Amino acid sequence: MQTRVARLYGQKDIKVETQETPQPGEGHVLLKMAAGGICGSDLHYYQDGGFGPVRVREPIIPGHEASGHVEVLGAGVSGLAVGDLVAVNPSQPCGTCRFCHDGLRIHCLNMQFMGSAMRLPHAQGMFRDWLVVPAIQCVAVGETVSAAEAACAEPLAVCLHAVSRAGDLQGKRVLVTGAGPIGVLVVAAARHAGAAEIVVTDLMDAALERAIAMGATRTINVSTGADQLSAFEESKGLFDVAFECSAAAPAIRSAIATVRPRGLIVQVGVTGDALVPLNALVGKELNWIGSQRFDAEFAQAAELIGRREIDVRPIISHTFSIDEALAAFEQAGDRSAACKVQLTFHS
Asked: Other C-beta atoms within 10 Å of 53: how many?
């Protein structure tokens, strides 16, 4: 069976090609892919050929947030039926390393993550018409939501994990810096977790409008109204928790300045080295922790989307056919208009 794939060869070099798709073996399913979102890492691969030390060193099919319909069940597969709409978990921990044995599969030493250029050979991703994948990586989302919504399970899982790192948010005052797709989904996850007040900062009005749609109680455009955020520095800081989703040095400094003493900053955004005011971090005895990817949160994300307990539709800004992959990646790079840009398959 022939399938179209969007294959990236390097910086600004993406082509739509065809290749063979095998039939599913034992424990696997064949999916008729429906929708796939372009993530920030996909965009870095396209725009810059990678990010930090991770570089595209051989051709790679991007895409690690996607959904599809079950077309064929391999031998021994149970719990899924032909026609089911499923969200595909891109994580493939080995199950045998010391972190997997310790219940920290998120830190698996041999993790294969679909669409990632971290290892050689690269782990191929999901931007294709047909995909064979282990059935254990498929989570049915029900019949109520669209394939586009189901494809948002992966980024929502990232945000649910970040919120879980913060502990109990019930009644808390929360800052979210950066209103890209991850930032606004953190807003939704924090709202679902019971945060009482969620203030969101960004440089773009369009992004901040989506933050309101996802549950923010107030937004601040720091390019035009930075003084509004400064008011939260009163009495050594007024926020209980900050989710730093931009990886921008000014945003990190703002989080340190506006979180109360012994408050918490969850670092979600990633970058290279950044200058940090350590004196303020130490003087306020702040807790600054990292958060990456997800584990059990993927199934939770699929369930919340399937019941629309978290409605992800406001973040989906643009849709392109796989044949328009180049245009889709270019659109995804325009933060003034784009939030979550998705590809669709089987035209």
From this structure: 7
